[in-house]
């Protein structure tokens, strides 16, 4: 009987701990924004892609930021009539999805339990990669604190699980689609 009770208690404890992430400094803070910054190498030329999940406006938008010098160079090289198209392509947010407060609450609960707040600051491979790029994910909280994680061909085990919550709960993939 004692063995049955001990096994039952161990099972209950294991189930209670399953999927629970350790407590972090971010757990009790209100998440207001997540930014995905794709590092496709274009940043070297003054062009940067972002996907922004804005929890104050309940929208997801993509924006490709072109620094003034890069934008002017593209306009200068453009064929006649293409300048307006270039101006529309850069520095203008494009809404990708909207979501409800309930979807936001489910998402934040899912990613917290899955352990996103416990990610290290950086995941980088020791291998030499000649033609590749990484990305970063930046979480901003209502007290203006920021949790940023950089990825370069090395990832935490729970990345795919957390990535799936962006699409299932908020209706948009975590990554910018240029």
Written account of the structure:
With 178 residues, this protein is of the alpha+beta class. The protein has a single domain, classed as 2-Layer Sandwich (Mago nashi protein). It has helices at 2-17, 68-77, 83-89, 101-114, 159-170, and strands at residues 31-38, 47-54, 59-66, 94-98, 122-124, 135-141, 146-152. α4 (101-114) runs antiparallel to α5. 14% of the residues are buried. Mean pLDDT is 85; it is low at 11-18.
Q: How are strands sequenced across the largest beta sheet? A: 4-3-2-1-6-7-5
Q: Rg to the nearest angstrom? A: 21 Å
The CATH topology assignment is Mago nashi protein
Low-confidence stretches: 11-18
| Cα-to-Cα separation, first versus last residue | 62 Å
Mean pLDDT: 85
Helix content: 25-40%
Strand content: 25-35%
Q: Give helix and strand order, one letter per element, not per position.
A: HEEEHHEHEEEH
Major sheet details? 7 strands, mixed
Number of helices: 5
Q: Supply the number of structural domains.
A: 1
Strands, count:
7
The CATH architecture can be given as 2-Layer Sandwich
- Given the C-alpha coordinates, what overall shape results? globular
Please state the structural category.
Answer: alpha+beta
